[in-house]
Structure formats: structure tokens, C-alpha cells
Amino acid sequence: MNRKIRIVSDLHIGHRASLIEHAKAIAPLADGVERLVFNGDTLELKYGDLESSHYNAAEQKSIFLEEVSKWGVETTLITGNHDPAISEVHSASLRDGAVFATHGDGLYKEIAPWSSSIKLLRACSKGIDENQTGRTAEDLHRYLSLHKQVSIKAHEMDETYNPTLWGKLRIFLHQAWPPDTPFRILKCWRETPDRAVSLAERFEIQAKFLIVGHTHKPGIWQRGDRYVINLGSYFPWPGAYCVDIADNLLEVKRVRKGRNRVTIGETIRSFEL
């Protein structure tokens, strides 16, 4: 019998918009499983809590790992664009390659085309070839590593971050511009399933199930004989899913979330592996 695995994404612990303020609140996610996979943007290791000038990313990571170690489950931390240095793991192949998980920032050359920092991200990502191919796990790892380096470099160059009152006002104005941001978000929501399949094909990933996050839009899409599953986020909207894998069954379940409170909800869809 295979161990039960649960995959979650985009908790953004430390972000002012996240419903989750500390790791203790997500302990229910570990109930009944032997392995818990965090599929990127687990912690806010770039900007931290913008309401506090004392946020320390290294300290928050240490606190998180200490809490998770109490749950008695194996944990895998996949990097995202908000926690690009949380580990050296950029993707995970599960159940003999039937399931592939990666955060999703690697689907876009500019990491987050909807971002208010798009010009900066575009400048930092010039070295990424969107059509790059590869045949090994190492090829894929190097390709995804480039995206993490872009996130780190762009953050270091970002002059809009300032935890003072005036700085927070500047951040708000910066994020509210340009006015076409909602349209860029919708465009990325439409493109994500096809981009996930494209990445799999270019790097000869044979997985039937491709698990991503990043865009915060939960959903299940079929493309040929593959399924793309986006796990959403722990922001108030639009929703969050988790994927449970046990024996020869993959289940997509709703995550019911509140302020520092999560429960696993009903099964949305089940698949045979």
C-alpha cells in the first residue's frame, strides 16, 4: 500500500492578504496523510508582512519548519516565486511519474505577467528561453532555477518596497497601476492549462496529472489525455483545493478556509491513477 500524499499550494504565510498567519493554523492539512507537499509560495519570504517593519524571513522559515516537524509527516517544500529560496526543490514527480507538481511560475518567462512589477520582471528574465527543451530531470531543474533567480533578482532591484507608512501608500499605488491588470490576470488564467502541458511536453514529462498553483485560480482542465489541476490560494478569494493521492486514486478536494482555520471539505472529483 502506498503512503497517502496531500498537495497544497499558495498559503502565503506572512502576506497581509493571506488568511493564514502562522503554521499552527494549517495543522489540519496534515491529518490522515504520511506526506505533505507544499507546492510553492508557502511562506512570504520576499516582502513579508507589509504591516510590520520587523518581519524576518529567515526567522519565519525557522518557526514554520519547527512547527511542521511536530506533525509527524514527511514534508516537501517546492519553491515558488514568493519563496524562491525556501528549498532546492522546484518540482516533484509522484506515484511513479503519474503526477507532476510544480508551482507554476516556470510556465511564464516573466514569472508573473499580471504583476505591477512586470517591467522589472521582464528586464530580469531576458535570459530565459521559453522554448527550451530537455530530456532529464536535471534539465528541468536548471530551467526552473532560472525563474527563481529572476524572482530573487527582481526583488533585490525593487525600489517600491518600503515598510513605512509612505512606503505602503507607494506600494498600493504601484500595484493599482496599470489599469489593464485585471485583463492580464484573466489572460493568464486562460493560458495556464495549455502552458502546463507545453512545459510537460518540452521536458518529456509523461505525467497524466499536472499540479500547479501560482495564479490563485482553482480549477481542473483536461487537455488530451492529461489533466491540469490548479490548487488556488489561501487568500480570501477565489478558493483553494488540495490533491490527495492514496493507492490508485487521486482526489481533488475543496479546502474550507477562514481566518487561521482550515478544514478539508468535499471531494470535487476523483481519478484513477
Summary of the model, kept short:
The protein is of the alpha/beta class. It has helices spanning 57-68, 118-124, 137-157, 165-175, 181-202; strands at residues 5-8, 35-39, 74-78, 91-94, 99-102, 209-212, 219-223, 226-230, 241-246, 249-258, 261-272. The protein contains 5 helices and 11 strands; from the N terminus they run ββαβββααααββββββ.
Keywords:
11 strands; alpha/beta; 27% helix; six-stranded mixed sheet; 273 residues; five-stranded mixed sheet
Folded structure, characterized:
The chain has 273 residues and is of the alpha/beta class. Helices cover 27% and strands 23% of the residues. The strands form two sheets. A six-stranded mixed β-sheet has the order 3-2-1-9-10-11, with no helix packed on it. Strand 4 (91-94) and strand 5 form a beta hairpin. The protein is globular and about 45 Å long. Residues 48-54 and 162-177 have low confidence and may be disordered.
Determine the structural class based on helices, strands and strand pairing: alpha/beta
Estimated radius of gyration: 18 Å
**Which descriptor suits the 3D outline?**
globular
Q: What is the first-to-last residue Cα distance? A: 14 Å
**How many H/I helical runs?**
5
Quaternary structure classification: single chain
Percent range of helical residues: 25-40%
- Strand order of the main beta sheet, please? 3-2-1-9-10-11
The strand count comes to 11
Main sheet overview: 6 strands, mixed
Element order: H for helix, E for strand: EEHEEEHHHHEEEEEE
* Beta-strand residue fraction: 15-25%
* Uncertain stretches of 5 or more adjacent residues: 48-54, 162-177
